[in-house]
Write a structure and sequence with these properties.
alpha+beta, 3 strands, 72 residues, 3-stranded antiparallel beta sheet
Length: 72
């Protein structure tokens, strides 16, 4: 699974970091810890978000990645 598909992912906690591909996991107790939401991982707490949220997150992520690449 990828964290971008999980309901525990919080992209709004730190938007600049989210634009770099990192988000906060609401299950993770480490406040300063961010996770790469594009990385494939195994997680016992994974809970799939709905289809609409999946589409919105993936679209947002791809748009931000493309914008970063264009600026480089």
């Amino acid at each position: 699974m990828k964290c971008i598909l999980c309901k525990h992912l919080n992209l709004q906690a730190d938007v600049p970091m989210a634009k770099l591909g990192l988000g906060k996991c609401r299950v993770d107790s480490q406040r300063a810890h961010s996770v790469s939401f594009r990385f494939e991982r195994v997680c016992n707490d994974f809970e799939q978000v709905g289809e609409q949220v999946t589409v919105e997150r993936v679209t947002w992520s791809e748009n931000n990645l493309l914008a970063r690449q264009l600026r480089s």
